[in-house]
Design brief:
Blueprint (H helix, E strand, L loop, with lengths): L12 H12 L5 E5 L6 H11 L8 E5 L9 H9 L9 H9 L5 E5 L9 H9 L4 E6 L8 E5 L20 H13 L10 H10 L4 H9 L6 H10 L2 H4 L14 H9 L4 H10 L6 E2 H7 L7 H10 L4 E3 L6 E3 L2 H13 L3 H18 L9 H10 L1 H13 L5 H16 L3 H14 L5 H17 L3 H18 L2 H17 L3 H18 L2 H17 L3 H14 L4 H17 L3 H18 L2 H17 L3 H14 L8 H9 L5 H21 L8 H28 L3 H16 L1
Parallel strand pairs: 1-4, 1-5, 2-3, 3-4
Antiparallel strand pairs: 6-8, 7-8
Helix pairs in contact: 1-2, 3-4, 4-5, 6-8, 7-9, 12-14, 12-15, 16-18, 16-19, 18-19, 19-20, 19-21, 20-21, 21-22, 21-23, 22-23, 23-24, 23-25, 24-25, 25-26, 25-27, 26-27, 27-28, 27-29, 28-29, 29-30, 30-31, 30-34, 31-32, 32-33, 32-34
Length: about 725
């Protein structure tokens, strides 16, 4: 009696095969397909049942329990589907047991979640009928002896970097969307123009089949790109509605489908579920207990119930127990918590919890476990962003956002999120005009540091000068010293070595007076950069050696001290020592996955290979280095282009080399990073070689052509040059 499907079944081949094989095992007589609403449990159960119909001599029987809310009616409903006549003075359960006992059949009980209290009936039937198998679809397991649970997860989705690929139909979510779209727009096809929007829609809908079908039906009203934008801006619950009069009411809209599950929860668990909507990207049990719980609420038991009903999920692979929920469930939870009047309080608790988490653990970001703690914060980053966003819209405490940004400054640096750091600091500083001077000054100083590392020197200097004025006014020696150091570093990048010297020297003196060994180490590194770039190599070595001695347990500081010492050793011709120091630094940076720092060390190793005459290794290292540098942090890109140019050996290569020199000059001018004096000899050698090959006129023409290249064009030409030269 399986219902006839009026549309095709997409995907789930692996699941079909696995479920069928389970049902063929003699020890698997009760199999429950679990998962959140909309994952296609019913369709999959019917598909598998249809494939097995010839293996059950007495048939495959489908019983829809969705219309039933009274558990006493379950047995009666099954008997009616099976066509068992009533008998006087014989209970319905007894009738079922007697009728099923000799039968060899498959019973599919659909939508069992609302009658879970009658689950023992299933055990009674299975014990009475040894050749009967039962497949149950439910948002929660029946929790019976002998039950096998098979979780149904959403359909497969493409990765974000594949969003423009028309081969996305290989992913079940996209294939389903395309087929259902063709049901309302017969000429619809996946093209390079719409593939990205289709992928974004499927991702926004978490790969849920029902949601995807509802979305595809809306293409009668909206073009694909407009539908994507509406789903992002207005929310899936408002957009996906009114599809198919022949569908049950709960499947007419996503909101109704979720409400169906929500209504099955106890009142306490309903409250817990709605408050969990405040989390973004996952949460821990500890966070939920602090943010969502009331004094009499048992969060652990509540979580067990929500996991059992597939309203939340356990995240696998996390460093500690973490939970999450599908995005549409989260949207519904936020609607509910807002309607209950709890949203403002829960958001305030959320902000308070994560601000405390960041501030109380700030020192971990500069200690021996700094990378481990940075990885932990990366797991929580969506929640931290949510607090920053909330702080821009609330008037309760304008300092919360700035304090959060201050606490995240080192994290942003370690994780190479500098562009985002600058954006947050800029927005928060503009919003929070009435905060305490000390807080604003600290935020400006750290914003300036981020901008300096991002090669945005004008913004960096403006913020740092304001911060310095504030700290001198309120008399804060520690922050004065840090600000001076960051200002000095800006001047080093700009080759203003005479201006940098007094700033960095004063900073070092203040740190020494305070006994701040960690910051003294960074000041010594900065003074070493200043003297090295200005050509005073031996003086720089002394600074860098002192820095290494003061880095203590800070791995980031040690890695940079070794990198700088390696640069010095290379400049002095001590190539073996340089490689040893750089390789140790590289191992530390690779732990961080910090692309810019890894690229910097590879650049220095490429220079050593070049100096030792190993052109193939130099090409490889330059290429790898160039691909790692973030294009917006362009201070290292010119060094790569100039190093590659120095490898040219013939006329054709010299033309490419001079293109790169021209492009390098344009980039240096645009970001305000002149050629350091220490690199001048190698640069002049590359220029002299190219002039010998091309002549003055040829050199000038090639240089002008290189100056006209965009950054992307220059990088592409450099990569092509190294690839062809290496072969």
């Amino acid at each position: 009696n399986l219902p006839t499907r009026l549309s095709s079944f997409i995907g789930r081949e692996t699941e079909q095969q696995e479920i069928a094989e389970l049902l063929r095992r003699p020890d698997v007589r009760l199999l429950t397909l679990t998962g959140p609403g909309g994952t296609g449990k019913t369709s999959l159960a019917m598909r598998v049942a249809a494939s097995l119909v010839h293996e059950y001599p007495d048939g495959v029987w489908f019983v829809d329990l969705a219309p039933i809310s009274n558990a006493d009616l379950v047995a009666t409903t099954i008997t009616r589907v099976l066509g068992i006549p009533e008998r006087a003075r014989v209970t319905t359960v007894t009738l079922l047991q007697e009728w099923l006992r000799p039968k060899h059949l498959l019973l599919v009980l659909d939508n069992f979640e609302q009658v879970l209290d009658v689950a023992p009936l299933v055990s009674d039937l299975l014990m009475a009928a040894p050749h009967v198998h039962v497949v149950v679809t439910s948002r929660a397991a029946l929790q019976l002896q002998g039950e096998y649970e098979y979780p149904i997860i959403p359909l497969s989705l493409p990765a974000s970097d594949q969003a423009g690929n028309i081969d996305l139909v290989a992913y079940d979510a996209v294939a389903l969307f395309v087929e259902r779209a063709q049901a309302v727009l017969p000429n619809f096809t996946l093209t390079p123009a719409n593939a990205s929007a289709v992928a974004a829609i499927c991702a926004r809908l978490d790969g849920l089949p029902l949601a995807i079908e509802l979305a595809a039906a809306r293409l009668k009203l909206f073009p694909v790109a407009v539908l994507r934008d509406r789903l992002m801006d207005s929310g899936a619950l408002s957009t996906l509605a009114n599809r198919g009069r022949d569908l049950p009411d709960r499947q007419q809209t996503i909101r109704a489908m979720i409400a169906w599950s929500y209504d099955l929860l106890s009142p306490a668990n309903q409250i817990l579920f709605t408050r969990l909507g405040v989390f973004v990207g996952g949460w821990t049990l500890a966070a939920a207990e602090q943010i969502c719980a009331e004094p009499d609420m048992d969060v652990v038991e509540g979580f067990a119930a929500l996991v059992e009903h597939n309203m939340i999920r356990v995240l696998t692979g996390a460093s500690e127990g973490r939970f999450t929920m599908l995005e549409m469930l989260r949207e519904y939870a936020l609607e509910r918590v807002s309607s209950l009047g709890d949203l403002a309080e829960v958001r305030a608790r959320h902000a308070s919890y994560y601000l405390e988490l960041v501030e109380s653990n700030a020192l971990k970001l500069v200690g021996p476990d700094q990378f481990m703690w940075a990885d932990y914060l990366e797991q929580e980053y969506s929640n931290l962003r949510a607090v920053l966003t909330w702080s821009l819209t609330t008037q309760h405490d304008q300092e919360i956002g700035l304090r959060m940004a201050i606490g995240l400054a080192q994290f942003w640096h370690l994780q190479d999120h500098l562009s985002e750091a600058i954006t947050w600091f800029e927005r928060l500083l503009n919003q929070s005009q009435e905060t305490r001077l000390a807080v604003r000054g600290l935020a400006m100083m750290l914003a300036g540091s981020a901008a300096e590392n991002y090669t945005a020197f004008d913004r960096a200097i403006a913020w740092l000068e304001q911060a310095l004025a504030i700290f001198r006014e309120i008399g804060n020696p520690s922050e004065i010293a840090q600000t001076l150091m960051y200002l000095g570093r800006c001047k080093v990048w700009q080759a203003a070595y005479d201006e940098a010297q007094p700033l960095l020297t004063e900073a070092l003196t203040l740190f020494q007076a305070q006994g701040n060994t960690l910051m003294e180490m960074w000041a010594l590194q900065s003074l070493g950069d200043r003297t090295f770039n200005s050509g005073q190599v031996m003086v720089a070595r002394a600074y860098f050696q002192q820095a290494l001695e003061r880095c203590g347990t800070n791995p980031f500081g040690r890695a940079w001290a070794l990198t700088n010492l390696g640069r010095v050793a290379h400049a002095l011709g001590e190539h073996d020592l340089a490689k040893q120091q750089l390789i140790e630094a590289l191992a530390i940076f690779r732990r961080t996955k910090h692309r810019g720092d890894i690229g910097h060390v590879l650049l220095d190793l490429a220079r050593i290979a070049q100096a030792q005459g190993d052109s193939d290794e130099a090409y490889r290292l330059y290429m790898e280095s160039l691909q790692l540098f973030p294009t917006a942090r362009m201070q290292r890109v010119p060094e790569c282009l100039e190093g590659i140019a120095g490898l040219a050996k013939d006329t054709w290569q010299s033309v490419c080399a001079v293109h790169l020199l021209g492009a390098s000059s344009t980039i240096r001018e645009s970001v305000g990073v002149p050629l350091p004096l220490v690199q001048l000899p190698s640069y002049e050698r590359a220029v002299a070689t190219a002039r010998d090959q091309l002549g003055d006129a040829g050199y000038e023409a090639a240089f002008a052509a290189g100056q006209a290249l965009t950054l992307e064009q220059a990088v592409a030409e450099a990569l092509a040059f190294t690839a062809s030269a290496a072969t």
